[in-house]
Amino acid sequence: MKIRTVIQPGKRGTKNLVKKYGSQLVCVRYRYDYCNKKRYKTIELIISEDDWQPLPLHPDQTHIKEVEQGFTREHKVKVRIAWDENELQSIARSYGGIWSPKEKVWLLDAEMAQQANLNHRIVN
């Protein structure tokens, strides 16, 4: 099936659904099944809402607002740990390290790298 149209609540074609579901309605989608020659109208609803604490963003992601609040490259040092050094990898992970596949290094706070005794593995 292919999704051709996604309509936000309040737009033309969603008025009755907004009356029925209110603020729970996220969007309306039209899906097309070319094999069976059918069109399906589907909706996405919010069924529960809970508080949630996100993990720090990976440094290779580019969500500017979240990065400003949390994990940024500027506050990290690069630590070289080989792929077969599993024990050192778990130590880096336990000190808040994050693997950067682009650079093939672990990124840690300088203070945490020192506490983990990984100073001799810091690279420029």
Can you tell me about this structure?
- This protein is an alpha+beta fold and 124 residues long.
- Helices cover 23% and strands 30% of the residues.
- The strands form two sheets. A four-stranded antiparallel β-sheet has the order 5-6-4-7.
- Strand 5 (98-100) and strand 6 form a beta hairpin.
- The longest helix is centred in the C-terminal third of the chain and has 9 residues, at 86-94.
Summarize this structure as a short list of keywords or feature phrases.
about 120 residues; 4 helices; three-stranded antiparallel β-sheet; single chain; alpha+beta; 7 strands; four-stranded antiparallel β-sheet
Short overview:
With 124 residues, the chain is α+β, with helices and mostly antiparallel strands.
